[in-house]
Amino acid sequence: MPNHLSFLKTRLAPTPSGYLHLGNLASFILTCRLARMHGAEILLRIDDLDQHRVRKEYVQDIFDTLDFFELPVDQGPRSVEEHFNQFSQSYRKKNYANLINELASQNLLFACECSRSMINTSNGESGCSNNCQSKNIPLDKPNVALRLKTSNSSMIELCDLSSGKMKYQFPSSMKDFVVQKKDGEAAYQIASVSDDLFFGVDFIVRGQDLIDSTLAQLFLSAHLSTPNFLSTTFVHHPLLLSEQDQKLSKSSGDTSVMHLRKSGMTAIQILNELGACVCSSPEFTNWEEMGDCLIAEWVN
Known about the structure:
alpha/beta; 36% helix; 13% strand
């Protein structure tokens, strides 16, 4: 991994849809350690776009976890109240709408009437299941989702911290992905790109399970008048798995950081339990040492 590279800003972008688990903590620590190594500021950006799943206690858990492990944050909310009063994604809806309108003005969107059940039964294929693109449905028709046309996708270049520039095929899982949901709210991909542009993020650390999202966002950014996202550097790290080799879930209470804290474990004890899942000799006295272990195992 080249240590001479420097970046302006990275972000912690948790979704408050449950209590944070050890996998979230590992990603936080890795992000913070890489940020400090490469001179990047750390932004806390809580992705609360899906208000139906957001609960105040989940947002509080994010701040509790950062405080408990003394993880640094340079920009963003410092409390639940400050998040909801100043930093919620609901305050940036106009930004999302502007990007959606920019894509629409280039004839890059089509309206899709497909229901969730129709898509779930479309033989495992992604995207629209009823050929809505050929129907020329008005984009402003009520109760339609807006999808980005991806049929003209070519090879996508991604800048990886360790490997440099790499080329990927556009992922089939992201075929004609949604940028605006049927309720008129922006979808994750457009909101995430918009926020990264808004806050000036140029370094992103995320799990390997999100590489298809990264490629979709790079494809989207290539069609914007300010395609700064294309110059972002990425790290896609392995996922921390359960004993059954399953991806950790926020619904699994026994792997939540809150559960471990309330059981009486100290920050160092939790770090060492986390380290036992990743490192050969987990003996840490602070989060920085844990971060160095994660870099050695997951990035270098």
